[in-house]
Amino acid sequence: MDFTHFNDNGLARMVDVSEKKETERCAIARGFIKMNPETIKKVTDGKMKKGNVLSVAQVGGICGAKKTWDLIPMCHNILLTGADIDFKIENDRIWIEATIKTTGKTGVEMEALTAVSVAALTIYDMCKAVDKYMEIGEIKLVKKTGGKSDFNL
Fold first, then answer.
1. Domain spans in the chain, listed from the N-terminal domain onward
2. Which among 33, 24, 88, 99 has a CA at the least distance from the CA of 61?
3. 125 included as an active-site residue
4. CB 119 within 8 A of CB 96
5. How far apart are CA 125 and CA 107, in angstroms?
6. pTM for this model (two decimals)
7. Burial call 92-106: b when 16+ CB within 10 Å, e when fewer
8. Mean pLDDT for the chain overall
9. Of 2, 30, 46, 22, which is closest to residue 136 (Cα–Cα)?
């Protein structure tokens, strides 16, 4: 079996995508951070001492997407053409959805997953003083378009 991320000597390598065709690519990932309803109320009422939690988490998620190549060893440095983070607030959790786009030779699935992860970690960081029981969960890819195959959960 040929492994794409190992060279002939069995050592790690970044896959060569120079022969691949550039296409428009999009990936959407989703996850949540669960917290006490009182914490959710503080977030929505703007009463967290560190500031506007969702605004900072949105910027954090976008920054995470842009730095994915620096965090995940075999990811390519991709020029992103779009990045957006949306939040849906429920009684005991905040759903985070990242939509990441590029026109390039490789997909942006890892960037979307990283964006959700960093946004959730940012929320955790901004709320940890008032809620020690937060949980981050169900981070997953829900849609991918462009390249060889599409995916839609």
1. 23-144
2. 99
3. yes
4. yes
5. 29
6. 0.92
7. ebbebbbbbbbebbb
8. 93
9. 30
Cβ–Cβ contacts within 10 Å for residue 144, how many?
A: 20
In order, the DSSP letters of the chain are ---TTB-TTS-B-----TTSPPEEEEEEEEEEEE--HHHHHHHHTT--TT--HHHHHHHHHHHHHHTHHHHSTT------SEEEEEEEE-SSEEEEEEEEEEEESS--HHHHHHHHHHHHHHHHHHHTTT-TT-EEEEEEEEEEESSS--EE-
Q: Out of 3.30.70.640, 1.10.3720.10, 1.10.357.10, 3.40.630.30, select the CATH number for domain 23-144.
A: 3.30.70.640
pLDDT in tens, 7-20: 777 778 878 888 88
Query: Which one of 84, 86, 125, 131 is the catalytic residue?
Result: 125
Cα dihedral across residues 71, 73, 74, 78: positive or negative? positive
pLDDT in tens, 114-129: 999 999 999 999 999 9
Distances (CA, A) of 142 to 97, 125, 128, 152: 9, 25, 28, 6
